[in-house]
Amino acid sequence: MVKKQRPINLQLQTIHFPVTAIASILHRVSGVITFVAVGILLWLLGLSLSSLEGFQYATEIMHSFFIKFIIWGVLTALIYHICGGLRHMLMDFGFIGESLLVGRISAIAAFIITAILSILAGVFVW
Ligand code: HEM
């Protein structure tokens, strides 16, 4: 029989992901984006090396805002993936421990470092 007085929590404002969960989800998402990006970047490299016309076309493509935005997004995903990856490795090798506090602090550190490097990547692309 179902307990009538069982606790329920449908107040959506009180339910939220912990910062470590967000860091983990973003690490997977950034890994998949990086994987797809390898194909796009290899295509662009192949195009630029194919001929003079190919190189000029690749240069032309790189002038468009949309492509610049994609490249910036790819760089940001790669930056986060590397920050998150280094965080995992520091924890796995036992350099910073595996406590919840370390997990939280290192996740926030990865976000802040990614934000700073992402701005620099934007300056580099534009
Ligand atoms: C072409 C470059 C890369 C691609 C396509 C890629 C892709 C991926 C993908 C798809 C995952 C699985 C994520 C998951 O299942 O949650 C992963 C995990 C991982 N990646 Fe990368 N990665 C790349 C480069 C790197 C680099 C440079 C580092 C080093 C900082 C790194 C560190 C890691 C680590 C430590 C994990 C395991 C995370 C865990 O245990 O949950 N990756 N990567």
TrEMBL record:
Gene: sdhC
Highest classification ranks of the organism: Bacteria, Pseudomonadati, Pseudomonadota, Gammaproteobacteria, Enterobacterales
Keywords (A to Z) from UniProt: Cell inner membrane, Cell membrane, Electron transport, Heme, Iron, Membrane, Metal-binding, Oxidoreductase, Transmembrane, Transmembrane helix, Transport, Tricarboxylic acid cycle
InterPro entries: SQR/QFR_C/D (IPR034804), Succ_DH_cyt_bsu_CS (IPR018495), Succ_DH_cytb556 (IPR014314), SuccDH_FuR_B_TM-su (IPR000701)
Pathway: Carbohydrate metabolism; tricarboxylic acid cycle
Topology within the bilayer: Multi-pass membrane protein
Protein name: Succinate dehydrogenase cytochrome b556 subunit
Subunit structure: Part of an enzyme complex containing four subunits: a flavoprotein, an iron-sulfur protein, plus two membrane-anchoring proteins, SdhC and SdhD. The complex can form homotrimers.
Subcellular location: Cell inner membrane
Main location: membrane
GO MF annotations in UniProt: electron transfer activity; metal ion binding; oxidoreductase activity
PROSITE patterns: SDH_CYT_1 (PS01000), SDH_CYT_2 (PS01001)
